[in-house]
Design a protein that fits this description.
- One of its GO terms (biological process) is amino acid transport.
- GO terms for molecular function: ATP binding; ATP hydrolysis activity.
- Keywords: Amino-acid transport, ATP-binding, Cell membrane, Membrane, Nucleotide-binding, Translocase, Transport.
- The protein has about 350 residues and is an alpha/beta fold.
- It has twelve helices and 15 strands.
- Strand 7, helix 6 and strand 8 form a beta-alpha-beta unit.
- The structure holds adenosine-5'-diphosphate (ADP).
- The site of adenosine-5'-diphosphate (ADP) has 11 residues, from strand 2 and helix 1.
Length: about 350
Amino acid sequence: MQITLNNLVKTYSGATGATDVHAVSNVSLSIPSNSVYGIIGKSGAGKSTLVRLISLLEKPDSGEVFYGDKRVDTLDGKDLIAQRRRIGMIFQSFNLFASRTAAKNIAYPLEICKTPRAEINKRVAELLDLVGLADKADAAVSQLSGGQKQRIAIARSLAVNPQILFCDEATSALDPQTTRSILSLIRDIQKKMQLTVVMITHQMEVVRDACDYVAVLDSGAVVEQGTVSEIFTHPKTAVTKDFLANLTQNIPDTASDVSSGEASIVRWSQEGGKYTLRFVNQMTGEPVLSRMAHLYPVEFNIRAGGIQHIASGDVGTLITDITGSPEALSGALQYLKSQGVIIEEK
Ligand code: ADP
């Protein structure tokens, strides 16, 4: 199910005397069907407001929301309820019923739709299996770990066979390892059920590990959008570069972390690092730097480096200093560009 947003606007009036808050200002996006689409932004950027508009929890002041060819922001009453039942949602806080078992939580949306009991039981068993928790059917919610709670919440959101799944900071309360397993489950389910997944996050790691496309939201507006590899290799705005820089810094800095798959960038010197070089996909195996030093009288010093695996391929990153005469340096950088290396200069 493709989602199209045309010029969405949502403004909240401020408290008496305060200025209005332009939570979402003129957002237009095309979210392709059968993909995972990330919406990343800092706290207060407008992500939650935008997701409430796209998921029909709130109406925009102006603009349009389409699911496929159908305009949905204008739906009301029964039609709105029916449409909303076809949407899956998961949240940071899981929102499970503490008084119900795992299986009964998954059954809840089916009970609301008055599905026959035998059918509910069959569907719940399938869903528990799908999220890898067949043995937890009768567990109380309080006995489940955070990751298990989110798996149950995912199963519940899929009970009604939605075409769209919204994930609002779904992994923000989880540790890195559990985050990875939940993201990989969401990707598997997306493929299996051909869902359109909209993933709201403030973490570039989530975009890197789970998304095909991403839009960067800042002060209520989309400042950048594209495929994840485009955004990783050609970040245009300061906001996006900031997210990518934080991604690098957040990463543990020992070689053992790399071999355990924990880290993708190792920094062995906090100094220097004027040039960030990015190598995409097959280029990550090429000895371009040593060729550059053979061709031009320059020296290079690598400050940090590694390979980041994104959903659509690999991006190699080297943070380097390159020194030499101005002509040699310019020739060397030209050479790197001609080899497809993407260069960011500090
Ligand atoms: P994010 O999810 O990116 O943190 P939000 O969408 O929650 O951002 O908020 C965007 C802006 O809109 C913030 O300035 C927030 O204070 C404001 N805002 C969000 N919801 C409301 C509301 N119901 N009433 C008034 N202001 C709101």
